[in-house]
């Protein structure tokens, strides 16, 4: 269904459908995310816009669930360089992926980054 919405240039609706799935504890699979990312990619090329935190988080989540954690971490570093602030969902996706494969030290580093980011928001 997500792929159909993307093919019909209804990417916003496809994003909402994925959000709705998550809200009902339905985990989108790699095909769903791939369709969504394809749609976002086409959309961003058309309007010459940059992906936002939601798009980057979706990509990191897919990569993490697919076992490509180092790629997900590369995307994370890219977002911070582009000044796209990660949100709680971004951190959770990375931490879950890292813990799933036993990389607890790396997960702790991400938790520390999340703590520091939250602390900075409160101070400013």
UniProtKB/TrEMBL annotation:
<keyword id="KW-0677">Repeat</keyword>
<feature type="repeat" description="PPR">
    <location>
        <begin position="52"/>
        <end position="86"/>
    </location>
</feature>
<protein>
    <recommendedName>
        <fullName>Pentatricopeptide repeat-containing protein</fullName>
    </recommendedName>
</protein>
<feature type="repeat" description="PPR">
    <location>
        <begin position="1"/>
        <end position="28"/>
    </location>
</feature>
<dbReference type="InterPro" id="IPR002885">
    <property type="entry name" value="PPR_rpt"/>
</dbReference>
<comment type="similarity">
    <text>Belongs to the PPR family. P subfamily.</text>
</comment>
<dbReference type="Pfam" id="PF13041">
    <property type="entry name" value="PPR_2"/>
</dbReference>
<dbReference type="InterPro" id="IPR011990">
    <property type="entry name" value="TPR-like_helical_dom_sf"/>
</dbReference>
């Amino acid at each position: 269904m997500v792929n159909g919405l993307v093919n019909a240039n209804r990417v916003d609706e496809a994003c909402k459908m994925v959000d709705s799935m998550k809200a009902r504890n339905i985990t989108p699979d790699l095909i769903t995310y791939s369709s969504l990312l394809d749609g976002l990619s086409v959309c961003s090329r058309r309007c010459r816009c940059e992906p936002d935190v939601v798009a980057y988080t979706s990509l990191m989540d897919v990569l993490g669930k697919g076992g490509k954690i180092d790629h997900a971490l590369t995307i994370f570093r890219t977002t911070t360089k582009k000044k796209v602030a990660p949100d709680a969902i971004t951190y959770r996706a990375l931490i879950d992926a890292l813990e799933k494969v036993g990389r607890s030290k790396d997960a702790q580093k991400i938790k520390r980054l999340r703590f520091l980011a939250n602390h900075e928001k409160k101070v400013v």
